[in-house]
Structure formats: C-alpha cells, structure tokens
Amino acid sequence: MKKLTFSFLLATTLIGGSANVMAMNTPEVTWDRHSLIMNGKRVCPVMGEIHYSRIPADEWAEEVHKMKEGGVTIIATYVFWNHVEEQEGVFNWSGQRDLRRFLEVCKNEEMPVILRIGPFCHGEVRNGGIPDWMFHKGCKLRSLDKTFLSYVDKLYRQIFSQTIGLQWKDGGPLLACQFDNEYRGSGDYLMALKKIALKIGFDLPFYTRTGWPQLSKPVPFGEMIPLYGDYADGFWDKELSETCGNYYKAFNFKGFRSSTAIGTDLLGKQEEKINKGDEDYPYFTCELGGGMVTAYHRRPYIYADDCYSLAVVKLGSGSNLLGYYMYHGGTNPESQTGITLNEMQRTLGTANNDLPVKNYDFQCPLGEFGQTYPQYYRLRPLHIFMKDYAELLAPMEATFPSKQDLKKGDDTELRWSYRSKDGSGFIFVNNYERLQSLSAKKNIQLAACGVTLPKLTIPAGTMAIFPINIDGIKYATAQIVAKRDGKIYMMQVNGIPSTIVMQNGKTLKNVKPKGLEKPVYENIYLLTQQEAEMFGLPAIAHEDMGFKATCVKQKEAGALRTIVKGKAKVAEAPSEEDWQTAAVYKITVPSASIANGKNLLSITYQGDCARLYANGKLIADNFQYGRPFLLGLWRLPKDCTELELRIMPWQANAPIYMPREADKTPGESIKKVEVAYF
Question: 378: helix, coil or strand?
C-alpha cells in the first residue's frame, strides 16, 4: 500500500488509514490536537475495557448494554493470541472466543470498538498472550525478526477475517486498532505491525499505541495516537507496604501526560518523559484504573473514590478521552491443552506475578459476573457531563494554579486546576489521595476566566467540577451533570453549600436539591449525588427470594505449606499439590437459586486463598483481600447444586501485602455463605 502523508490524511475522510468511501450514515471521524471529531462535532468519549474471551458469549449483549448505561461510549478489548491459537495453526474463533459475534453485539448497541491486537498484550494472561509454542521458534519476539513477523502476519490475517464487513468504513463498529502494548523499543517495530495490518486490509479512522514507556525511536507523527494511563495502586509492585511506588502522582493535576508507575515489573524505573511531538496529539487514556486485580503477593483494595478522583484529575489535566482498564471484569477461559491461561512466575513470558487461575474481577465498575461496584454509579455523572458538554470542553486548555509535583500525602494546599476557552471554563477540585488523610481546606478562593468564587471550605475527600460562564451561569458551587431538552441538571457537592450565580445577576444561595421534577431556577435542576448517579437509569426493583445456601466442613487443613519466593522474588501461589492440604467444605445451593435470575454465591472467609470446584473441576478462585468470594450461580453446570470449597489457611508473617480490610487472623474459617441477587 502506498504510504500516505499526514497532510493528505488530514484532507481525507479518515486519519491514519487510506482514503475510502464511507458507508451511508457512518460518522466521519477525524482528530486534531484536542479531540476526536465525529461528523464535524467534537466528542469526549468514555472508553471501557472488556475482554470478550473472558465472558461467556451469551452474556455479551447484556454486559455491553450495562456498560453503555454506565456512560461508556467506546469499547476496548484485547485479542489474546493464545486464546485463539493455543495450538500452532489451529485457530479457535468459537464460543466466547468468537470475535465476530462480539463485534456484531457491539454494532447492535451502536458501540464503537478499539481492538488491541497485540501480538503482545499482557492483560495478566499467560505469556502476555503470546502462545507457548512461539517461544520455541528460534526468533526474537516483539522485534523486526522476519520469522516472528511472519507469524504476526498469520495472526493479523485471522483477526481481519473476523472483522470483514464490520470496519468503520462499512458501517461496522471497528473504529481503531492498537499495535502491541507497553513497548519501549524502536517505533520501526510498531510501524512494521501497522504495515502488515494495512496490507491485509485493515482500513480504520485511526490507530493507537500505548504512550508509555518512551520509545527508543518514535513513530512518524500521525501514524498512531499515543494513549496514556494511571492507576491508584498496582499488583505488580514487589514492595509489600501499603502505599508503595509513586501512584500518588495520579492524584495531582499535572501537565505530564504519562505515568511512571505502570508495569514497573516489566518496564523497570521510568523517567517522566514522552516522545517529542506526542504533546501535539490529543490527550487520551486507555488505562485509567477502573480498579485493580489481586496478585498472590500483593492484593490492593480499590475504593470508588480512587477511581473517581483519577478521572476528575485526568479530565482536569486536559484529557479528552477517559479510557478505563478495566471497566468490566471477567473469568479466564478454559485452555484447549490443559494448561492454565493466567499469568504466573513459572511461565515463559511476563513471569513476574502469580495471578488467580480463573478470577479476573479487577474490582472495576462491573465485576467478574457483571455485578456493579460503587464506582459504576459514582462515575456516571462525570460520563454524562463529558457527553453533553464535549464540544465546549474539548478545546479548553488546562491551567495548573497548584503545584504539580506534590509529594505523597502532601496536605499543604488544595489540588485544583481549570480548563478554559473564550471566557468560559470549568474549575476542577481534588482534595483526595488514596489512603492519605487530607484535611479540609478552609477559606479557599478559586478563580478562573476573570471570575472569583466566594471563599469556600473544601471538605476532606471532596472532588468537584465548578462551571464558569457556562449556559447563562456565571459560576456555581454545584457540578453540572447534563443538558437535555434545554434543561440543565446539576449535582450538589456533598459538604459544600450550593450557590448558583446567573449572568443576569440573579443569585441563589444555599440552594437545596429539588430533584428531577422541580427546577431551582427557570431551567436549572439541582440533584443529590445519588439522584445524579441514577440519572437516566430505569428504576428496577429486585425481590429477595430468600434462597439459602448450606456449608458443611468436611476436612481440616493439613500442615502449613512453606511459602517460597519464585522467579520474580515474590511469594508463589499454592501449587496443585499444596491444594490437596487445604481445608474442604461442601456448599449446597437450592436449584431454584440457579435458575432464578442473576444470583451470586457470596462467601466471606478467613484465610489466604480459596477455590471452588463443581463435579471435581475448578470453576472459580480467589485471593482473599477483604471482599467476598463470588460466583455467578447461572454459570454452574446443569443440575449441579453441590460445590466443593477449599481454603488455604492464612499464615502469620506471610510475605504478602494484605489491605487493611482483609482478615489477617492466622488459620481459616467460614464467616458467611449466602445467595445474593444483583
């Protein structure tokens, strides 16, 4: 394919691919240094990561719809190479590996998709997604090695076969592709991957790469948009202290787009540098922590405010696409060869952490079985705001009045920023940092766009966005959520009196929320936080059917195992042999609870880790970290009502980071077993 210059691409319908004829009614997509532009209008998407091959296919439609109701406007998903070609030359696109069916589900929901097609993905899968057999081909992986690229060509051709007729130009959902993941070498490798994809037939509005770490040689400008990320904590850290690493930086408004905390197990220490010219791309993220998975040696407990604070800070720092990793958890699929598909210290690639064999819940907005965690609702008002105010927000530049290099737990000043353009703006406030006791900030004077707010007390833990000269509002100490049919919906910020000053001089002080039906002034409605979180969602009543599960201990735990440190010099998870010494319980659930709706088996236990077996087969596992061990009962084999639960005892002084919420009492026991509807 003839290489197109960037100047030519700017003049065509699409950017980053060849010119083509768009399908009727397919939005025209371009981008500039601010944002994506669809049919001439700026958009600020919310991208949510879901791994289709980690969720049963018959659940996809419901789960994608729930993501949409959460405010997600773009789906991101990995195509794990070893999920589809575990055996060399044998591609499996059936069942929950059926990429085409998943894309069709997204098309039905009018949900654009960004495919992260590897060949290396990571995603906490075995070898980062590269099949075991590739390690025996005598070639250098993730390089310009001709043998390696020949196998990538075969993989990409197979992926392309699943997308025929479903690319954006065809009226399909496939909007973009990401090449490889967290690559730090020469951009020539990434360009070689793109060349393969284009030659095969991928022809998309744009292409992406992870913006971290800095490449040793950049890719030519315009070829791939770099996407960034930040997390509140990381399972990959080798330290066992509560707030290790520099994750605290994610809670500071700052001009530096990238993170030096992501993937330190693979990437090592990173400097605060991005490739020259990357700041001329729009500021997008693909891995903003929607939660965090638990490794055996490190088990972070993530709070809804962690996720919300990260999002407010990124938006206030200038990002115009918030991409969450993960937004929906999942379960590792069955192997075709008898191995397990989780990341482990003992595997050939990404051998740095022991992850659960099955569980990939990630504590994200929608968990392993589609259950909602608090951040699902906490984030919704922000997502609605990004959709309704995208054209106004996207071109606004970020300004940073507070220090950008605050140290961990620094409580000397309020963290805030503002974004503005042509006399209008939004002030962003964050008085929160994970596991740090920030104090209330008194007599705070915020100002932007020539407007000074009255002195405020910003309570501890508060995150807020205040409008300045927006839609007739001179300023408000309440947060805009939505603009629908000429009506403006605002959210009261807990602990801050709501004052709304109109540009016509009208001042409303200490305004109380009146809900969706009654305005507080003309077309302005003030909602409580709970009302804002539920804005636009249908009311659904769940009836507790009173199902009960029984649990009977059948075997005491044997002698404590010796916890050894593995290849990565962190604690190794129990081996299959170790599990034979676990305490054993029999759990019986009523058959009606399996057939009736979405029932979860919830197990609260004391111990190190636990497994569930059905008919002798491992179906679920859990590293104890303070939340219950869950199982979606509808996924049980037919007529299976009895489960075997095995628990490994917790050992005092184990070389494992356990959060403050976890029960660290030595030994093991069952605290509660129940059936809960969600």
Answer: helix
| Chain-centroid distance, C-alpha 340 | 24
Cα–Cα distance for residue pair 531/516, rounded to 1 Å? 8
Burial letters for 200-239: b for 16+ Cβ neighbours within 10 Å, e otherwise?
bebbbbbbbbbbbbbbeebbeebbbbbbbbbbbbbbbbbe
How many C-beta neighbours within 10 Å does residue 520 have? 17
Strands 447-448 and 451-452: antiparallel
Give the N- to C-terminal CA distance of the chain in Å, as an integer. Answer: 51
Output the six-digit token pair for 487. Answer: 């009506």
**pLDDT recorded at residue 22:** 54
Position 13 scores a pLDDT of 27
Distance CA 485, CA 591 (A): 48
Token pair, residue 310, equals 């990260």
> Which run of H or of E encompasses 188?
helix 187-200
Q: For residue 344, give Cα distances in angstroms to 85, 349, 357, 646.
A: 19, 9, 9, 21
Confidence of residue 598 (pLDDT cuts 50, 70, 90): confident
How many Cα atoms sit within 13 Å of 508 on the Cβ side?
Answer: 21
Please report which helix (H) or strand (E) contains residue 602, including its range: strand 599-606
**DSSP labels, 198-225:** HHHT---SEEEEE--S--SBPPPTTS-E
> Per the structure block, which two tokens stand in for 83?
């999920």
Residue 179: other Cβ atoms inside 10 A: 27
Count CB atoms within 10 A of the CB of residue 637: 10
Cα gap 629→587, rounded to integer Å: 13
User: Comparing C-alpha atoms, which of 295, 124, 345, 265 is closest to residue 658?
Assistant: 295
pLDDT digits 0-9 by tens, 414-423 = 999 999 999 9
* Segments of 133-201 assigned E as strands: 174-178
* pLDDT tier, 539 (very low <50, low <70, confident <90, very high otherwise): confident
- What secondary structure letter does DSSP report for 321? B
Q: Residues 325-340, buried b or exposed e (16+ Cβ, 10 A)? A: bbbbbbbbbeeeeeeb
Residue ranges of E strands in 57-102: 74-78
CA angle 278, 281, 284 (to 5 degrees): 100
Output the pLDDT for position 596.
76
Phi then psi for residue 616, to 5 deg, are 85, 0
Which residue, 489, 501, 485, 502, is CA-closest to 529? 489
pLDDT given for residue 6 in this prediction: 28
**Residue 133 CA: distances (Å) to CA of 90, 152, 639:** 12, 13, 38
Cα 523 → chain centroid? 35
Phi, psi of 225 (to 5 degrees): -75, 125
Please give the structure tokens belonging to residue 229: 């990320």
**Residue 62 identity:** E
Q: Which residues contact 239 (CB under 8 A, 6 or more apart)?
A: 245, 657
For the cut 50, the answer to whether the pLDDT of residue 424 exceeds it is yes
Are the C-beta atoms of residues 437 and 457 closer than 8 Å to each other? no
Q: Across the strands, what pairs with 527?
A: 491
d(CA 136, CA 141): 10
Residues 6+ apart with CB under 8 A from 674: 548, 549, 601, 602
Buried b (16+ CB within 10 A) or exposed e, 437-454: ebeebeebebebbebebe
Before 326, cis peptide (omega within 30)? yes
Place of tokens 């397919």: 26
Distances from the Cα of 69 to the Cα of 11, 377, 383, 483, 570, angstroms: 35, 10, 10, 17, 40
